[in-house]
């Protein structure tokens, strides 16, 4: 994998919360620890991500935790469907806005969909007086999240192999992450249930089913999604 592709994969994993340490990235990508260490160091030096010591030690050497450089900024959260996209803005200070629906057609291809999303984000920014610095997109098809690529989606012509997060960064200049909609939903459900007081044993393992115009699912073990071949659920 080219150096830039490795760095893009790291930014996606850290930005989506799927990786919080260098060891997490090695596990998710299958790349050599030396390759990941060098790429993380470059990103830290450039200011693209932050790396700090964990505030609470669990014994032994403290882990060094990774986070997006602008983790406290405004994020645009988007869920793509076949014919509409749900969009909301969120930040730690003022919370999440009411989601709005924007007509799209995923069959139009990634560039035309991105144009519609950019317009929708602009409308939300103007309506709420916020400026997004990051974008996270849930996609209705298999996703190789570490490489930001949509993989052989059944109902998304023109999307196969597309690095949609990279396209977003190229067109908007904003950091971006993409994930399969069912896996994203499963992670969201996990966070919600934990905040509602559910214990670890109640949530492990966790099976999540998403039903809409199509059906998808995700499987979490120890809080992490299990992935099968080509971005499918394990």
Automatic annotation (TrEMBL):
Gene3D superfamilies: 3.30.420.40, Winged helix-like DNA-binding domain superfamily/Winged helix DNA-binding domain. This is ROK family protein. SUPFAM superfamilies: Actin-like ATPase domain, Winged helix' DNA-binding domain. Pfam families: ROK (PF00480). Belongs to the ROK (NagC/XylR) family.
């Amino acid at each position: 994998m080219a150096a830039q592709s490795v760095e893009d994969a790291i930014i996606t994993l850290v930005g989506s919360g799927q990786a919080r340490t260098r060891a997490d990235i090695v596990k998710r990508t299958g790349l050599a620890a030396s390759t990941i260490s060098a790429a993380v160091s470059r990103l830290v030096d450039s200011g693209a991500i932050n790396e700090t010591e964990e505030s609470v030690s669990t014994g032994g050497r403290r882990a060094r935790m990774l986070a997006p450089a602008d983790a406290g900024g405004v994020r645009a959260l988007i869920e793509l469907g076949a014919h509409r996209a749900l969009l909301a803005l969120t930040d730690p200070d003022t919370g999440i806005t009411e989601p709005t629906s924007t007509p799209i057609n995923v069959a139009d291809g990634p560039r035309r969909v991105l144009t519609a999303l950019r317009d929708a984000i602009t409308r939300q920014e103007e309506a709420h007086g916020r400026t997004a610095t990051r974008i996270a997109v849930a996609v209705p098809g298999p996703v190789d999240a570490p490489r930001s690529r949509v993989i052989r989606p059944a109902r998304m012509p023109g999307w196969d192999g597309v690095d949609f997060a990279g396209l977003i960064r190229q067109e908007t200049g904003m950091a971006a992450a993409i994930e399969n909609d069912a896996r994203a939903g499963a992670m969201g459900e996990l966070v919600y249930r934990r905040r509602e007081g559910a214990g670890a044993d109640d949530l492990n393992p966790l099976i999540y089913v998403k039903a809409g115009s199509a059906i998808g699912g995700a499987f979490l073990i120890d809080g992490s999604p299990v992935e099968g071949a080509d971005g499918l659920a394990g």
